[in-house]
Amino acid sequence: MTTHDEELIERANAADRTPVVFVHGLWLLPSSWDRWADHFERAGYAPVSLSWPDDPDTVEEANRHPEVLAGKTVGQVADHLAALIGGLKRKPAIIGHSFGGLLTQILAGRGLSAASVAIDPAPFRGVLPLPVSSLRAAAPVLTNPANRNRAVPLTFDQFRYSFANAVSDEEARELYETFAVPAPGAPLFQAATANLNPWTEAKVDTENPERGPLLIISGEKDHTVPWALSNASYKRQRRNPGITEIIEIKGRGHALTIDHGWQEVADTALTFVRRFV
């Protein structure tokens, strides 16, 4: 647990408010949720933007020392987050983006969430589509098997395609310089092979009755997790007795949580969370 995590958990426990845990995905850090955290705090919740193991405090530090980000697996990160959530006195809502959306569903499947929102979530075992755009977005990692044990940065052109295709070139450049960090390659290899490996860590208990309400948000123009993947995750999650919903936000790409339209997505998530906690 970092000092950042400790402070947020202590603050949430001291407040008479429901915690909302934010989980980032690959190529981002907890700071990517800062505006969301402020927004949810103003709405009456206690925001907790949790780190992955060994996350640096800043984008600059992460880019200087990418080696600290390497080697993290889906299971390792999920267990790390579950332990942190265990330190909260009240069951939180959990909101995650991309691989954070997959982790959100894993945590919800463990019964750790009062309500969950998975935004453009990475696929898990049982999600079968293989969109060409997703393969292209993952290619910077998956084309070299050695990347499984490395932290891999994106070039601007790669970030433009996989994250920022639905914004202007100027905004894409600003997002890249502000938010982008190297990411561990292992989770992408795990997701890519999940349907071939019965023991994969990239799996979700979709039938646990303690999962709670779940919303999946899909960006219409997302190259990395297009509608086919989000909808396939939704169809698997509908097996759960809890409320399961999906919504597509028009004109948005994979950067929908950090680009100029972030508040529309945040309000969509907030409206869902308010219904239940």
Commentary on this structure:
It is a single chain. The protein is α/β, with parallel strands linked by helices. Helices cover 40% and strands 13% of the residues. It is built from eleven helices and eight strands. The strands form two sheets. Strands 2-1-3-4-7-8 form a six-stranded parallel beta sheet, sandwiched between helices. Strands 5-6 form a two-stranded antiparallel ribbon. The longest helix has 13 residues, at 262-274.
In terms of topology, how is this protein built?
Blueprint: H1 3-14, E1 19-23, H2 34-42, E2 46-50, H3 59-64, H4 74-85, E3 93-97, H5 99-109, E4 115-119, H6 132-142, E5 151-152, H7 156-162, H8 169-179, E6 183-184, H9 186-192, E7 214-219, H10 227-237, E8 244-249, H11 262-274
Parallel strand pairs: 1-2, 1-3, 3-4, 4-7, 7-8
Antiparallel strand pairs: 5-6
Concise structural overview:
The chain is 40% helix and 13% strand. β1, α2 and β2 (46-50) form a beta-alpha-beta unit.
Comma- or semicolon-separated keywords:
277 residues, alpha/beta, 6-stranded parallel beta sheet, two-stranded antiparallel ribbon, 11 helices
Q: Helical stretch count?
A: 11
Strand order of the largest sheet: 2-1-3-4-7-8
Mean pLDDT: 97
Shape: globular
- Show unreliable segments: none
State the helicity in percent bands: 25-40%
Say how many strands there are.
Answer: 8
Radius of gyration: 17 Å
Structural class: alpha/beta
What is the H/E string? HEHEHHEHEHEHHEHEHEH
Termini Cα gap? 26 Å
The oligomeric state of the chains shown is single chain
| Percentage beta strand | 5-15%
| Biggest sheet layout | 6 strands, parallel
Domain AB hydrolase-1: 20-267
Keywords: Hydrolase
Pfam families: Abhydrolase_6
InterPro entries: AB_hydrolase_1 (IPR000073), AB_hydrolase_fold (IPR029058), Carboxylesterase_BioH (IPR050228)
